[in-house]
Design goal:
The chain is α/β, with parallel strands linked by helices. It has two domains: 3-93, no CATH class; 103-236 and 257-322, no CATH class. 49% of the residues lie in helices and 20% in strands. The chain is built from ten helices and 13 strands. The chain has helices spanning 3-22, 29-41, 71-93, 103-118, 179-194, 211-220, 240-250, 264-290, 292-298, 306-322; strands at 45-52, 58-64, 122-123, 131-134, 137-143, 145-149, 152-153, 156-157, 161-168, 199-206, 223-226, 230-233, 256-258. A five-stranded mixed sheet has the order 3-6-9-10-11. Strands 1-2 form a two-stranded antiparallel sheet. It has a two-stranded antiparallel ribbon with strand order 4-5. Helix 3 packs across helix 7. The longest helix has 27 residues, at 264-290. The two termini are 24 Å apart.
Length: 328
Amino acid sequence: MNHAAKYHERAKERISEAGYRKSNENIDAHHVTNALRVLTETGEVIRAAAEATRGGHKIETIQPADQRRRGTAIARAAARKRLLYARYLGWATGTKRHPHGHIGPAGEAAARTGILASGTLQPVHPDAGQVSTLLGVSLPGPLDSAGYHVPLVHGVPQQPVTVMIEVKNIRAWIYPSAEEIYQLLTKAAIVQQTHPDQQILPVFICRRAHPTAFWMAQQLGFMIIDMELQFVGHPIDEHEQAHFDEVRVELHFNDLRLGKGPSVRVTDRFAKVIPTHASAMASTWMRTVANDEIRTLIAPLRTAKHAERTALMDELRHAVTRAGHRGF
């Protein structure tokens, strides 16, 4: 996704999450997308040409089409938004000094410390860190974490559940079509196929997920945890607190948090949901992987783009419905 599209995503999230915070109703991000398209087509707003910032990012802004008597003010506001969003992108996508950025590693750290705090898993590594090989299977890219949970029924240990974890600390809402989900599910399907009798549970951790993503997770047999916070990491320099406050307040990124957690929601979900539901979710995932029609669609959705992705998602929804689920 280019930076212009990312700024569009930021606009959607700002509008979509305002209602969520202030009432029990919110405007779903895809409705905001449709509204923005209509406003653009009718000439109410324009998507101003992307302009480069000092950090080299090219950022598009959305502006009112009628700029009579306020052109200077709009230009000044757009320049300020570009500056702040470029600063955020430096934290998210990296700089020469910090090539991996701060936000991705901070989210992973918040999730790992949350997992350890829950006491629910025996992690593969003591720090709950990255895992490249699981159950003897070399993975196509490391997991952010993994571990083993032994359910107890009336005090009697049951079959262990192998938990595979990916963390995506990104601003975009996660929908069923998000390619990030299928990065995890592809790995989980490979391990499940190699060990068809083992209980495998994929867990996807993100900032925010749409209800339809949770419906999909329930039907396919994996778990989504939305942290509802986006951790940024520790300050870069002595001016970082002021820079951070400007981005959070002026871009309305109200869930930004300095630091690396732990994520309270991750701790809570691992402590309360995993012991009660891990075996059932893993059994559902086992059936999903055993369904050739569904399984063969997972890996292509990891990399498919645009029209191909839309077609594959339609196929997946039909396959899930044919498998007896309500769909998503």
